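Intended use. Records like the one below are meant for learning the mapping from a protein sequence to its folded structure. Do not use them to infer anything beyond what is encoded.
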Amino acid sequence: MSVFHYHLPHIPNGRDYMFEINPGFATVGPFDKLNMIDARWIDMETGLFIDVTTVRPNITARAMGIQGALQCKDKHHYLEQDLFPLRDSVFEDTPVKIPFQYAWLLEEEYTKASLTRTEFE
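Structure written out for the chain above:
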């Protein structure tokens, strides 16, 4: 794991973040049910974190002729055109990159209400 310090305009002293990589990140399939997350980005002040799961070429789908097929260890499947080119956006006053088909991806994973609901039940 590595710790990074970022100077942020809205946080006077900056903030420390830890990037922790799962030793099993190179395992390609869903063989180890306890290790679906490849890495974690952790705000060391608040404890909030973002799980990082990498996408990889889906060799089986590509062999069947599905161009640009991708997959994650958690069995999620995507096409390169769903993710790329990444779009520029802003999250909490910070520039970020988001998937090209972000709305469709959110609807697919969390239902259409995920784009309009502002409170969690």
